[in-house]
Each structure stands twice: as C-alpha cells, then as structure tokens.
Amino acid sequence: MSRFEIFIGTWNTTGEVLETQASPASTLSATDTYRWLPGRHFIVHEVDARFDGKPTRSMEVMGFDASKKQHFARSFDDQGSMEVFVVALKGRRWSIQGKTVRFSGSFDAQKNRLKGLWELNESKSGWQPWIKLELVRA
C-alpha cells in the first residue's frame, strides 16, 4: 500500500458531467480527503461533493486483497449504495474498475494533479464517457 501515499491529503475536485441516457449534463465540485488508518494497511477516502449544486457524500476504503493479489476499493454513499472496485496504480496511471463505472487517469509529474475520465456502463450501448474529472492537491 505504500505507493498509495500519493493520495494522502486533501484535494479540490472539479468535473464536467456529460449528458447520458439517464441524466443531463452538469458540473461537479468536491473536496476529497485521503488518510491512512492506523497500521497503514488501508486508506479512508471521504468525499464531500456537489453535483449541479446538490450535495452528496461518500466514503471509500482502499486496501490490498492478498487472496486475489489485487488492490480494491469499497465505496459507500449517502444514498445507501455500495460498490466494490478493483483499483490499480501503475507509475502515474490510476485506474478504477467497477461493474457499472470505471475511471482512468494520470497524475502530473509533480503528483499534485490527477486528471481523468469516468465512464458509465449504459446497459444497451456499453461504456460511455461520463465525467471529465480533475483533482488538485489543496
């Protein structure tokens, strides 16, 4: 988990939410905070976001599943949803893979900015661009 140190701290997040079959285009802004749990085996990621001005909050726990030999994230939100992701950090490339959403992005050379794209798995049309996202270290 030591390579995940890159996330620790507070980030200011902005995004352009693209129109999908389920919702119109909008914007998002958020504060993302990452911290180690004692023992440094897990990271807690808390999100305080606004989608088109409407608040939403979530909490995620990231760790390493030794039996599967892969990193994971479990995300919980204020609407009662839970999702499990496979996450990977390879060099400066960060990816998140879930059943209904996925993210691919890159950190800048200074490791103070992460830019990428969330995609949504639309049932009939497959993976579609969803949110253009940028996190900047506060």
Number of helices: 0
Give the total of beta strands.
10
Based on CA atoms alone, the radius of gyration comes out at 15 Å
Identify low-pLDDT runs.
Answer: none
N-to-C terminal Cα separation, in Å? Answer: 22 Å
- Percentage of residues in helical conformation: under 10%
Derived structural class: mainly beta
The side-by-side strand order for the widest beta sheet comes to 1-2-3-4-5-6-7-8-9-10
Overview of this protein structure:
The radius of gyration is 15 Å and the shape is globular. A hairpin with an 8-residue loop joins strand 1 and strand 2 (26-36). Helices cover 0% and strands 67% of the residues. The relative contact order is 0.20. A ten-stranded antiparallel barrel has the order 1-2-3-4-5-6-7-8-9-10. It has strands at 9-17, 26-36, 43-51, 54-65, 70-77, 82-90, 93-97, 101-107, 113-122, 126-137. It is an all-beta fold and 138 residues long.
List the helices and strands and how they pair.
Blueprint: E1 9-17, E2 26-36, E3 43-51, E4 54-65, E5 70-77, E6 82-90, E7 93-97, E8 101-107, E9 113-122, E10 126-137
Antiparallel strand pairs: 1-2, 1-10, 2-3, 3-4, 4-5, 5-6, 6-7, 7-8, 8-9, 9-10
